[in-house]
Amino acid sequence: MKKEHLVTRLEQQLRSAQAERDGAAHNASLQAARTALKQFQSTRLAGTHADLLAADDTRDAALFFFDELYGAHDLSQRDADMERIVPTLQRLLPLNALHTITEAIALDALSERLDTAMAQQVGRKVNEARYIAAYREALTPADRARQLELVDALGVSLCELVRVPLLNTTLKMMRGPARLAGLGDLQQFLERGFAAFKRMRQPQDFVATIVRRERQVMENIYAGSASPFDVA
To answer: Helix or strand or coil: residue 3?
Structure first.
């Protein structure tokens, strides 16, 4: 895929993610429900993947995934930064890096939409039973399967990215201009993801483990399992 096509997709996904956040920002009840949902999901992910968070080799990558891609904090500033400098990203970053960023924002946009759908069902008081019920009622298996496809695609892209020659040097060269332009959040996102995956001995196994477990959780929920989060 050419850079021009990636840039078009990246801009579309940035606008989609921001539209979901803007919609919730004007609805206090929905915003509170979304925040509660994201906090529950963050805690659940930490439990399901406790071994990845505990291991020295995978801790940073797990934190990156769960904080940056599934976390409860607001990513509006990072995405606004990114939208502002898309032309710069297109010029400076190699195709592989631009592809990774696009995959991350596509996952973000879909996750925001799914979170909104669930939050409208579950409300502000989220517990396991209410979460599972909302998961089944608000979303289709195809929605969740697509989300996991994007998680897998992003993980594979990050695995490939760490093998790109001189990319670490390029990211370091961008620190000064990014800081001066007020793009610190975006720069940290890029560097954190690259460093976390660069540090792992078997990044492909890390990605495969997350996707396998989360697919099993999805199948358990739709199958009516009494303990859907109990996966190995």
So the answer is: helix
Q: Are 118 and 135 in contact (CB under 8 A)?
A: yes
- How is residue 201 annotated by DSSP? S
Q: For the chain, what are the domain ranges?
A: 3-223
Q: How many residues can be counted in the chain?
A: 232
Q: d(Cα 19, Cα 26) in Å, to the nearest integer?
A: 11
What's the start-to-end Cα distance of the chain, in Å?
A: 36
pLDDT digits (tens, 9 = 90+) for 50-93: 999 999 999 999 998 888 766 666 666 666 666 776 777 777 77
pTM of the model: 0.84
Cβ-proximal residues to 17 (8 Å cutoff; 6+ apart), any chain: 75, 79, 105, 108, 109, 112
Dist CA 124 CA 37 (whole Å): 8
Helix (H) or strand (E) segment spanning residue 157: helix 141-161
